[in-house]
């Protein structure tokens, strides 16, 4: 049986070396643990190959720059490290987590420029992120927390600090029997779920919130490309909550979520329709092609 995430067999790449899974630890006075000076990536490998691997490594580097530190490895070095981790895991289909953070060092206040920047990469088996919602359509709560303005926080970074409100939103959603929560942004527009982007269908056209204050997901960009290749019109725009009433279908996209249909958001209902199914199937084919 698999134990907790800290109690498994295998190896984790840490600062240039493969270390025993259970020994991949940090000191309690790690800056990131206190001040959220951490960025990460969530990636999936299919048939032994990480989908859009380089895009993820590039985003990791960019996220770090956005929160004011530099990862001391090149994109090629990160790519090689991920390949090493995946090979060592023996997994063909895996979730790959790269995380970079300001470690323990001479500084323990808010400023931490002298502390070392560290990088670790782990891989594990991870099935459907929303379980059987993938077939029936997920049920989403509406979060009381709003995606913050880019003037408040670097909202385009995949940075740990941005997930504090996601964790709270998802806990509240799960307590109500929902799979996840939809979040509005600071202006009141529909934004995204706690770890996935959103798409809506109306009259054969697709509408997705403009990613101007949240993560412009790699899956989101992939799916927009797939839709356009099919000749389907995609509107990237600000979406008001009252428009949800008129949308027929809804799905989520994300590396972990892949393409997951949504059946309900609050009191709004959606059908798991033909286009949703088609995009989900096409995405599955694409990641394995
Ligand atoms: C908050 C948030 N939005 C969107 C996404 C989707 O991003 P991607 O498709 O790059 O995985 C994720 C997942 O990484 C996420 O955590």
Quick check: average pLDDT? 97
Q: Specify Rg, calculated over alpha carbons.
A: 19 Å
**Total of domains:** 2
Largest sheet: 9 strands, mixed
Number of strands: 15
Structural class by helix and strand composition: alpha+beta
Report the oligomer. Answer: single chain
Poorly predicted sequence stretches spanning 5 or more consecutive residues: none
C-alpha termini separation: 32 Å
CATH superfamily of the largest domain: D-amino Acid Aminotransferase, subunit A, domain 2
Keywords: Amino-acid biosynthesis, Aminotransferase, Branched-chain amino acid biosynthesis, Pyridoxal phosphate, Transferase
Protein name: Branched-chain-amino-acid aminotransferase
Organism: Sulfitobacter delicatus
Family: Belongs to the class-IV pyridoxal-phosphate-dependent aminotransferase family.
Q: Topology, pairings included?
A:
Blueprint: E1 11-14, E2 17-20, H1 31-35, E3 38-46, E4 49-50, H2 53-66, H3 75-89, E5 94-102, E6 117-124, H4 133-136, E7 138-147, H5 164-175, E8 180-185, E9 190-193, E10 197-202, E11 205-209, H6 218-229, E12 234-237, E13 249-254, E14 258-265, E15 268-269, H7 274-287
Parallel strand pairs: 7-8, 7-14, 11-12
Antiparallel strand pairs: 1-2, 1-6, 3-4, 3-5, 5-6, 8-9, 10-11, 10-13, 13-14, 14-15
Helix pairs in contact: 2-3
The chain binds pyridoxal-5'-phosphate (PLP).
Residues 42, 192, 195-197, 215, 217-220, 253-255 line the site of pyridoxal-5'-phosphate.
């Amino acid at each position: 049986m698999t134990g907790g995430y800290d109690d498994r067999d295998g190896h984790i790449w840490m600062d240039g070396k493969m270390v025993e899974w259970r020994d991949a630890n940090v000191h309690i006075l790690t800056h990131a643990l206190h001040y959220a000076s951490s960025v990460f990536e969530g990636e999936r490998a299919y048939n032994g190959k990480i989908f859009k691997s380089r895009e993820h490594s590039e985003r990791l580097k960019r996220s770090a720059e956005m929160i004011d530190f530099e990862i001391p490895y090149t994109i090629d070095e990160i790519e090689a490290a991920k390949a090493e981790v995946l090979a060592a895991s023996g997994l063909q289909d895996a979730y790959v987590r790269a995380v970079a953070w300001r470690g323990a060092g001479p500084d323990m206040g808010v400023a931490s420029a002298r502390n070392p920047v560290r990088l670790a990469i782990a891989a594990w088996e991870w099935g459907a992120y929303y379980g059987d919602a993938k077939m029936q359509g997920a049920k989403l709560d509406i979060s009381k927390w709003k995606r913050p303005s880019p003037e408040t926080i670097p909202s385009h970074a995949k940075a740990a600090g941005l997930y504090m409100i996601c964790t709270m939103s998802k806990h509240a959603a799960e307590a109500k029997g929902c799979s996840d929560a939809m979040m509005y942004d600071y202006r009141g527009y529909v934004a995204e779920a706690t770890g996935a982007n959103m798409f809506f269908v109306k009259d054969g056209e697709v509408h997705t919130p403009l990613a101007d204050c949240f993560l412009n997901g790699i899956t989101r960009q992939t799916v927009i490309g797939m839709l356009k290749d099919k000749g389907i019109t995609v509107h990237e725009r600000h979406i008001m909550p009252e428009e949800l009433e008129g949308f027929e279908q809804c799905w989520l996209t994300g590396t972990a979520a892949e393409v997951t249909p949504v059946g309900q958001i609050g009191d709004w209902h959606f059908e798991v329709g033909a286009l949703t199914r088609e995009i989900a199937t096409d995405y599955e084919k694409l990641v394995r092609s």
